[in-house]
Amino acid sequence: MIVDVKNYNKTEIVSIGDRIFQGKFFLHSKFKRVTNFSNGNSVLSIVTEEIGKGPVNIVVEGMDVANINDLYISKNFISINYKKYPFDKRKLFNSQIKFKKINTNRLKKNLIYFEKTLLDLSHPKSIAFLINSDRKKYFITAFERNFLERIKEGVYNIFNNNLIYGIKKVKGVGFGLTPSGDDFISGLIIALYVFDNIYCNNTKYEKLRKLIYKITKGENLLSNSFLSLSKDGFMPERIKKLIISILYESEKEIFNQIKNLLLIGETSGSDLGVGFLLTIKNGGILCF
Amino acid sequence: MFLKGIIKSGEYFDSITLMLITKSITETEGVLEAAVVMGTKENKEILKHSEMLIPEFKNVKDTDLLIVVKIDHKKNTDKIIKVAEKLLKESKHKKEENIDEYSARSIEGAVKQIPGINMAIISVAGKYAGDEAMKALKNGLNVMLFSDNVSLKKEVELKKYAKEKGLLMMGPDCGTAIINGAPLCFANVIKKGDIGIVAASGTGLQEVSCIISKEGGGISQAIGTGGRDVKKGVGGIMFIEGIKALAEDKETKIIVLVSKPPHKEVLKKIADIIVKINKPIVAILLGGNSEAIKNAGGIPAKTLEEAALTAVSISKGKNIDEYKQALKENEKEIENLAKEEAKKIKKGQKYIRGLFSGGTLCDESQLLFKEVIGDVYSNAPLNPDFRLKDVWKSYKHTIVDLGEDEFTVGRPHPMIDFSLRNKRILEEAKDPEVAVILLDLVLGYGSNKNPDKELVPIIKKAYDVLEKEGRYLSIICSITGTDKDPQNKKKIEKELKKAGVIVMKSNAAASKLSNNIIKIIGEE
Q1: What is the greatest pairwise CA distance in chain B?
Q2: What is the domain extent for residue B408?
Q3: Is the dihedral angle over the CA atoms B482, B484, B487, B490 positive or is it negative?
């Protein structure tokens, strides 16, 4: 048989995030490859394999994600559009990084490579103008120019002893459903989490992460959920793999993981990457 | 000046979509400024700072979408708001096309819905594409598989099955075809005629078919196979089947074969089939062994242009030596033009920088350059020793293919999105050692709809930079397209020439002119 027709229309759950919780959910928002559900406080997402694993993602195969309207999760099963799938713990995705000893020289070298590649590959309208001012030319309308100035001012303050003021300037700023400013802050929080684990080991930044989350939290459930998970080190597979590559692996792997992060096609990946990079670089002064 | 805004609740878009909608609204007549953003407190502060905050936005939520336009006359208000709403609706419709209206959910469904259909174009993630293609073949459909990242094993399986069933299996990674006069995916509006093409190269097929059309010839069928078909792994299954199909096709009188060099075993198969076919066969196997073609009774060509002109000569019943004479005359003109250009170039300017969107055109240019000057640096070099260490920076003579993976991550293909090449044009213009910038411009369905609007301002900027620095350099371009393409080649050519670009008849001619200039200034 040339193709296995019998199994062709199989639908299944490929991965379940480790921060998935039980309950009945209502539809929040729909995109081509993602349908978001909420219980009013938190968000869960049903996604295709292209979007990938994440702490609150249920990755499915063989389903038209944009046509999913109903989600219920119990201890033993996940019901999608009234069809029950077993809650198979073997499919749980571990969204935290297992840290190992760091080679500081390699990390420094990898960060330089990460910065260069992020700049080369990121979308022109991402906030990569923070690492190369030539990018300002892509911000044309009055809103875009003021957006750029506000982000610049906020980020300057974040890294110059005026953190709270800076975070307030950056949060919530941007175009889409997850504003660029919030993505930047997620990158920042993740960087602080990474610091805690590779150098300080005394949860030095834990309070800081909680404070930043408290200031940033707004009405946007998606941003809140992502920030909250980031502050505790729970992250999507794309980000987890990227950070592992920067900490421990080769330039080739970093390139592949940046590509993966940016493949989704929006500015979120770049904005988060910029937040991570600048925080690591600035934090480096304290910790290296 | 007036401000008008609307609020949309429960409408979710990604940032790029909103930026694109903003850009489109801003380009509408009568609009001075526009912003389409989520209604966060912070975004409202920016709107206030931009003098675009209206009282209606006071109580909006983070999750509300705000559209605000600054317009010249109050009378235009309704019209512009309607435009904005339409753009949003279209964008939403695009995103949710599988939700709002009925469309077939499967290939079987599509076959039932449209009786008599005989072709499927498949463009889904590579992981699924192979299975979808097999489904289509099993439903009796010919397949054009646009997707890449399909395994070699799957490609062979698909092609063997298609061969057995007498169906076409074009691709994977097949971007161009013209079937029964219909241009598919990236293709041009070409005259109908008696020349059939089999191509394992997308832009190669486009260049050859466009030149044929311009020279008064026409295409019966143009079959793409995907580049990997002529490699050892696939063994030329569909290339050979394509030749056989055209040999049997009553409308086809001449066959043109377009490819990068096939594997020697595949070349042997091609030669074996050429011997058996009683129709003239012209072959351009860029950089490949032309002797095997010649010995089999085919007509080898050295460039895509030469292949097209040879086919047209035969189609029109002319002696094929006539086109050779025409090419010789062209070359004389090219030499004279090169002399004129070389005079304007200062001492110290010595390098060519080729910035290509078409992979085959990039290869052709490198081959022509190799003949005159030698190997050039590239991200896709003919000689591996000349691979660029940093693809983002040119080194000495450099010709890059901007359609390669390293340049297209997170961006559309450079035939659609010019931003990366535009940036690079300016960088090359600023380099005091550059003497020639060589470009291709591929028109047709799927390509950038307004190439002149994107390219001309950059060319002007480049010339401004050069003028300030008291330098000149030749910006040379070929246009792969026809006057009937949605972009209209004639119009684009006129705009480029007006901006100071030297527009040549073909990629080969543009490359030859560039080579000649470099050769002359090198000898001085």
Answers
A1: 81
A2: 328-523
A3: positive
**Which residues of chain B have a CB within 8 Å of the CB of A29?**
12
**Cβ A221 vs Cβ A42: under 8 Å:** yes
Say if B472 falls within a structural domain: yes
Structure tokens at A213: 């989350």
pLDDT digits (tens, 9 = 90+) for B180-204: 888 999 999 999 999 999 999 999 9
Q: Rg of chain A's alpha carbons, rounded to an integer?
A: 20
Are B79 and B94 found together in one domain?
yes
In this structure, the answer to whether residues B273 and B400 fall within a common structural domain is no
Q: Do B38 and A146 touch (CB under 8 A)?
A: no
A218: chain B residues, CB-CB within 8 Å? 40-41, 62
Look at residues B138, B304, B281 and name the one whose alpha carbon lies nearest to residue B209: B304
ipTM of this complex prediction, to 2 decimal places: 0.71
Contact flag B15-A125 (C-beta cutoff 8 Å): yes
Residue by residue, DSSP assigns B49-115 as HTT---GGGTT--TTSEEEEEEES-GGGHHHHHHHHHHHHHHHHHHHTHHHHS---SSHHHHHHHST
Taking the C-alpha atoms of residue B310 and residue B321, their distance in angstroms, rounded to an integer, is: 9
Compute the mean pLDDT over every residue in chain B, rounded to the nearest whole number.
89
Q: What are phi and psi of B170, to 5 degrees?
A: -90, 120
- CB-based contact, A33 to chain B, within 8 Å: no
Least confident of B55-59, B215-219, B295-299: B55-59
Residue B323 domain-assigned (yes or no): no
Give the dihedral of Cα atoms B110, B113, B118, B124; nearest 10 deg. -20
% pLDDT > 90, chain B: 64
Domain count, chain B: 4
Answer yes or no: are the C-beta atoms of B175 and B159 closer than 8 Å: no
Give the H/E segment covering residue B523.
Answer: helix B507-523
- B35 vs A contacts (CB less than 8 Å): 141-143
What ranges do the domains of chain A cover?
Answer: 5-93, 104-287
DSSP H helical segments within A4-54, as ranges?
A: none
Residue B275 within a domain: yes
Q: Write down the H helix ranges in B279-320.
A: 290-295, 304-315
Integer Cα distance of B217 and B208 in angstroms? 11
Q: Which of B147, B173, B199 is the last residue of a domain?
A: B173
| B92 and B188 assigned to the same domain | no
User: Which CATH number covers residue B86?
Assistant: 3.30.70
B222 and B281 part of one domain: yes
Cβ within 8 Å of residue B514, ≥6 positions away: B352, B354, B365, B369, B436, B438, B474, B476
B142, B111: one domain:
yes
Calpha distance B209→B207 (Å, rounded): 6
Which residues are A23's β-sheet partners?
A73
Residues B292 and B387 in one domain: no
Same domain, B199 and B140: no
Specify whether the CB–CB gap between B224 and B144 falls below 8 A. Answer: yes
Please tell me the distance from the alpha carbon of residue A122 to that of residue A12, in angstroms, as a whole number: 33
Token pair listed for B498: 């007006």
Please state the φ and ψ torsions of residue B400, each to the nearest 5 degrees: -110, 150
Low-confidence ranges of chain A (pLDDT < 70): 1-10, 200-204, 263-266, 284-288
Q: Are residues B221 and B285 in the same domain?
A: yes
Q: Residue B26: which of A29, A120, A141 has the nearest Cβ? A: A141
Q: Is B458 helix (H, G, I), strand (E, B) or coil?
A: helix
Tens of pLDDT, residue by residue over B304-357, are 999 999 999 999 988 878 788 888 889 999 999 999 999 999 989 999 999 999
CATH code assigned at B186: 3.40.50.261
Tell me if B362 is assigned to some domain: yes
Domain end, chosen from B173, B202, B219, is at B173
Domain containing residue B133: CATH number: 3.40.50.720
- β-strand pairing of A43-47 with A57-61: parallel
Nearest to A177 among B13, B50, B131 (CB): B13
